[in-house]
Design the sequence.
């Protein structure tokens, strides 16, 4: 015999009722691209730090160019999401200490110079043909090995900050129980690293790097599974709204897409394929990395959408 | 420092929506959008069923996740009475504040900025009541300074039983419902 519990509202604000759907495709696309670029900055920075830029076909030469393009696409998606677009410059007339979005806006301003510095270490041919002066800058940077190392360290640190902030942005929202876990930044950072490793693995010309990134990606995918377990343990042992939020993914409305696309296609299957590949049982193909990248994108969609679905609605019942 | 708040007598509220219409006309709220609304809550087990009707809006909380998450400072706490407001031409429409409100009290105005109840601050600063309070035909709404022990709202909260919405969300709302 269940007790009746019914709330009827006359409110019908668009994208708020019946369930919050204020953030649409633009936000998960940005979170995904931002996370993947963050991972690529960490990978490229690591290669610079370990002097791999001396190899003629090091991935650290093409990563920053791709990163600039992908991050700009992500920021464009973010811009499309703004409903008061003409006022976007207001982000840069202030710094709001308690706002993760304000932190993010300023971190993005720092990320671009770091990526450009990385590009300048070995500018692409089509760049130097148009602007021959780039070769001079490149020569000057390469004369100072400590400078290259520091560009690597800067890229790694800013990559960490960028990847982490995409998670913190959501996790500071106490109003959405599913996001309100302090492990979300770890999940997004590891998932970003995983997608980045998969992406670079797809296009790396250097065999050592390609193999290294496939192995690293297996590690990231395993860590991602552990982080998921920890997030669910946290939510399920918390208050009622948090338990309900976890159940949305585990056996609720979002369970099919979560288990099939995020866990199955995004983690388990590529992990299985890639474990066989790094142990030389099968050849490396594009399948596993593509699945990892698609899984990472769907993860952001699921978390953003299910997070908005999760709420405190019935919790105030007195 | 005054702290404005509202006390709503759920025993008198009949859900007539006069407050909703008053708000819409006073604040020129576009069609299809609401700064305030009516909730009807039923609970219990037959035959012991209770019903509460209440008029809801932004709770003008003392702990404000909407203000903390705002990247431009558009969402802010007003100098007068701690009212939570949005400066329209500073808001970029990122919608973080709308997501951050556990009451879903905010919305994206068709003109782009985040919008919500202002406690009719333009009226209050002239010494008048908010439009919703002014128009209520059952006199179930009271507006005033919660810090002033002699205000009508403070006296009601001392003499009657009350609750606030979503106590556990930690926002310390300033709208109280008499039961």
Sequence:
């Amino acid at each position: 015999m269940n007790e009746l519990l019914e709330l009827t509202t006359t409110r019908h604000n668009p994208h708020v009722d019946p369930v919050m759907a204020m953030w649409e495709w633009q936000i998960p696309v940005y979170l995904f691209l931002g996370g993947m670029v963050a991972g690529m900055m960490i990978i490229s920075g690591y290669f610079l730090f370990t002097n791999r830029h001396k190899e003629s076909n090091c991935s650290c030469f093409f990563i920053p160019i791709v990163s600039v393009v992908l991050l700009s696409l992500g920021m464009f998606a973010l811009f499309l999401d703004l409903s008061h677009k003409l006022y976007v410059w207001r982000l840069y007339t202030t710094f709001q200490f308690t706002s993760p979005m304000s932190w993010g806006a300023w971190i993005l301003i720092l990320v671009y110079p770091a990526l450009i510095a990385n590009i300048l270490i070995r500018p692409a041919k089509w760049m130097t043909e148009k602007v021959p002066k780039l070769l001079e800058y490149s020569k000057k940077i390469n004369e100072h090995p400590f400078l290259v190392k520091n560009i690597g360290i800067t890229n790694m640190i800013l990559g960490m900050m960028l990847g982490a902030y995409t998670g913190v942005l959501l996790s500071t929202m106490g109003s959405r129980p599913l996001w309100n876990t302090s492990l979300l930044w770890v999940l997004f950072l590891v998932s970003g690293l995983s997608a980045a490793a998969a992406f670079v693995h797809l296009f790396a010309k250097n065999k050592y790097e390609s193999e290294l990134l496939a192995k690293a990606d297996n590690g990231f995918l395993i860590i991602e599974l552990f982080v998921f377990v920890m997030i669910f343990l946290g939510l399920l042992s918390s208050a009622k709204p948090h338990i309900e939020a976890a159940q949305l993914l585990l056996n609720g409305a979002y369970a099919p897409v979560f288990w099939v696309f995020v866990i199955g296609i995004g983690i388990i299957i590529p992990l299985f394929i890639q474990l066989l590949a790094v142990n030389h049982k099968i050849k490396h193909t594009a399948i596993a990395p593509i699945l990892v990248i698609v899984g990472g994108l769907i993860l952001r969609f699921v978390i953003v959408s299910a997070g908005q679905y999760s709420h405190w609605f019935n919790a105030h019942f007195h | 420092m005054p702290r404005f708040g509202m006390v709503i007598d759920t025993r008198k509220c009949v859900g007539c929506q006069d407050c909703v219409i008053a708000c819409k006309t006073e604040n020129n709220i576009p069609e299809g959008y609401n700064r305030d609304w009516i909730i009807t809550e039923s609970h219990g087990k037959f035959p012991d069923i209770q019903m509460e009707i209440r008029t809801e809006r932004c709770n003008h909380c003392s702990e404000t996740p909407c203000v903390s998450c705002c990247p431009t400072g558009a969402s802010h706490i007003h100098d007068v009475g701690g009212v939570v407001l949005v400066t329209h031409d500073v808001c970029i429409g990122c919608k973080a504040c709308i997501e951050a409100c556990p009451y879903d009290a905010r919305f994206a105005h068709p003109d782009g900025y985040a919008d919500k109840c202002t406690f009719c601050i333009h009226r209050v600063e002239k010494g008048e009541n908010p439009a919703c309070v002014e128009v209520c035909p059952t006199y179930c709404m009271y507006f005033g300074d919660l810090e002033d022990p002699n205000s009508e709202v403070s006296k009601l909260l001392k003499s009657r039983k009350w609750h606030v919405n979503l106590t556990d969300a930690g926002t310390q709302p300033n709208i109280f419902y008499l039961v």
Notes: Chain A has eleven helices and one strand. Chain A has a mean pLDDT of 95. The radius of gyration of chain A is 21 Å.
